[in-house]
Amino acid sequence: MTFSSLSLVITLSIIYISGCSPAIPTGGTFTIDLIHRDSVDSPFYDGSMSYSQRMSHTLQRSFINAKRINKNSNNTKSKYQTEIIPDHGEFLLNISFGDPSHKVLAIADSGSDLSWIQCKPCVQCSEHKAPIFDPKKSSTYEPVNCNSGTCKAISTVETKCSKTNKCQFFESYADGSFSNGTVAKESVTLGDKVLQNIIFGCSFSNAGVFRPSWGGIVGLGGGNESLVSQIRSIVPGKFSYCLIPYPKTDEVQNKSSKMTFGDIDFGPNVVSTPLVPKEPKTYYYVTLEAISVGNKRFDVNLGSLRPLQKGNMIVDSGTTLTMLPRNIYEDVEATIRSAINVRTLKDPQKALSLCYRATKVSDVPKFTMHFDGADVELSRENVFVMTSKHIMCLAFRPTSDVAIYGNLAQMDFRVGYDLDNNLVSLEPYDCEKLILEFLADFVVVDLEEDNAIPLVLGRLFLETAGALIVVKARKSTFRDRGKQMSFQTRHIVNPPPTPISSLNVVASVKPTKDMIGNGKPIKCEGRVEKETIVYRIMKRLIGL
Questions:
Q1: 98 Rama class: left (phi>0) / alpha (psi -120 to 50) / beta
Q2: Would you kindly state where each structural domain of the chain is located, as residue ranges?
Q3: Model's pTM, two decimal places?
Q4: 410-437 pLDDT, tens per residue?
Q5: What tens digit of pLDDT does each residue of 76-107 get?
Q6: 347 is catalytic
Q7: What share of the chain is helix, strand, coil (3-state, %, to 5)?
Q8: Residue among 109, 113, 347, 412 flagged as catalytic
Q9: According to CATH, what is the number of the domain 75-233?
Q10: Which residue among the candidates 38, 41, 87, 316 is catalytic per the annotation?
Q11: Do domains 75-233 and 267-432 have the same CATH topology?
């Protein structure tokens, strides 16, 4: 067998994160992992728990989070008092503060604005397993002056002036928990993106029911102090996420969902609905007009003499179940019950009301959420949740408070928030496919291990991937089956005699059985520990 000489050699450079991530888009846009709290990469993970136990906890957190949202959105108590701490969020993210950077695994909370972490010296702090951030060791830490416009503009937490003229924040919760400290500016790192002068709370005193396994809160709400709002001058005022489905039964969750800050190109099946400005600004309000089950449509405002209330539903990734207005929920449940026409069972978690043995249900009726200007058709997995190995239940609950569009209904959708144009966009998408994957024919060659030989993407691969390499712009683009991924190229540190370029890919590449043979996808999986050039031992592929 002979091989043509290659005029271009490309190696893969990676950044260590858990699971696989899509390529970093060009421009200011960047992507990070959202780690589910039941993932093996989460400090909350408990391998001794069964699927049923984990799901029971998930449903209880959903009820608690819904209560928190309703209390906060209709707060009749102290202006600054939050009903429940955001300890019950479903997703975490890795974020680093300071220079040198200090890594924190924090709750990603779409129901909070001001981010805060524990800091030294901690006068009164809850137990924390990981090292605590020391602002004295950071060259970029800058306390905010209490007379500054920044301090005066903070509206979601109580602020006061210290004896040293520093802006102090006081975050209190109805259960007696609290977090107090200094409002400061700091450099923050997300993925490979360094964000300067981010406002956050450095907590020197906190107590209550905070968990020792997480290091703080990252506010992703719509208020001015949230991380999303602060970086609008750095990246476009847009962010999106793609949530992978829950693992089935006792499967181990070892994959991460993705969150992108900045522009994202949606496909032709995207629909959009207006974001409705309301107080508090923290939440993302949309207008639910009706729900269809099969050919029956149920209007939210049916029978009411008043016009439809705009912003009657909150989109929240931290709440698992979808909470529907009580009047429409009863019609929806009755119609589904009639359409499926199979003997119902009791929910083993005693939380949901309409349940079936999953194997007995062959088809479910078409289910569509009618938002203002956007009809979103949900799949079986969006409508029903497995509460045990064999029983599935309707993943909706009635509420007399504000309705909530939960994360089960959002799974396998790309959900994008355009804060500049006040829009939420939804596109059906297989979120596990947000990996570098190409259908390609190739040959595995038995070679001796040689760390001087990088992984080579040859002409056949580049042709299959529809590669476009712009040398001057240091940009490479791959296209395959309607998807497009762009990479920033850079020179390798300590390069070999012949200069080569590397693709900066947020992913680790591990050979799998699917890599051998024709027409099989090349999959990206596994995890790594630090930035490096990855060399593959080709002879090991033969033994797979």
A1: left
A2: 10-17+436-542, 75-233, 267-432
A3: 0.71
A4: 999 999 999 999 999 999 999 887 754 4
A5: 444 433 333 344 567 889 999 999 999 988 88
A6: no
A7: 15, 35, 50
A8: 109
A9: 2.40.70.10
A10: 316
A11: yes
